[in-house]
Amino acid sequence: IGRVSEIPAVIIHGQKDLVCPSPAAFELHQLMPLSRLCILESSAHIPADDAMIAALVQATEEIADIGFKGQ
Question: 55, 66, 48: which is closest to 13 by C-alpha?
């Protein structure tokens, strides 16, 4: 995973996602120590439900607060 592991991230995963199984999100989170994992129990793969949209907006705000370092 290389340098990506050094980037703060929010990993948002729908528990009902049949395309990308939950273990993949957990594994990615373990490889990225600066990440926060958000599992949405009622969401699936497509970011179309209210819970997923809210999580994406919150994650965007969190990352915007951190800013871009090293540029």
Answer: 55
Residue 44 host element (H or E): none
- Does residue 25 contact residue 39 with C-beta atoms inside 8 Å? yes
Tokens of 69: 């370092």
> What is the amino acid identity at position 7?
I
In the chain, the amino acid numbered 19 is V
Question: What is the separation of C-alpha 55 from the centre of its chain, rounded to a whole number of angstroms?
Answer: 9
Could you report the per-residue pLDDT of 6-64, keeping only the tens digit for each?
888 999 999 999 999 999 999 999 999 999 999 999 999 988 899 999 999 999 999 88
51-61 as b/e: b if 16+ CB within 10 A: ebeebeeebee
In the structure encoding, which two tokens stand for residue 52, read together?
A: 């997923």
Return d(Cα 42, Cα 27) in angstroms, integer: 21
